[in-house]
Amino acid sequence: MRYQKQREAVASTMRRLYRQGLTTCSGGNISFRVDDHHVLITPAALDKGIINFRQIALMTLDGENLTPALRPSIETDMHLKILRSRKDISAVVHAHPLNASLMTATETPTIRTDLLAEARYLLKDPIFVPYALMGTEGLGNNVSEALSDGAVAALLENHGVLTIGTTLLQAFDRLEVLEAAAAMTIKMKGLVKGVALSQRQLSEIDGMHTQPIVEK
User: Fold this and answer.
1) For residue 82, what are the CA distances in angstroms to 2, 88, 90, 93, 181?
2) Structural domain span for residue 46
3) What is the pTM of this model?
4) I need a labelling partner for 17 at 20 to 30 A (CA). Which of 98, 145, 167, 200 fits?
């Protein structure tokens, strides 16, 4: 089977999302660019909690399904548009974690990343994407356009969240941190006065993206 190792990685990441309560057995989807022309993507209508590598669909970046026995995710159009517009990334993770998804359905859909340095470094400023019906070209257009300026995390109004990365692990890590930041944002509201990082501190963290991090 072509790209078996990469298929196993996609399936493993999807099962991990489910195990950690970041999505439901039917919700969420993952795509991974394996080369300049091909993309792996999770299928529709299969249990995400027990998915295996043989159930991961292979497509061209132009949308041709090379595994006709499998029905690709309903959100395939969104994934392909993101991957075509963001040549700097290879992985897209979309899921419906409780706290982050809740924030997409509020009047102030903002997840704070100015409270913890890790959140700021990994997520920058998550962007808000106006509502469009799931599985439609409109949703794909909205999300890919919103991510075109360099954002790495998106809140999809009344829907869920999405993160991207150069690797599957990076995209997964960002989604996990986004959910934790959402939980902190919710708990802060009306309970305690949050102490945000200063603008100087935020700028220092942002500057780390242009400098190698040396472990000591």
Assistant:
1) 23, 10, 10, 11, 24
2) 4-210
3) 0.90
4) 145
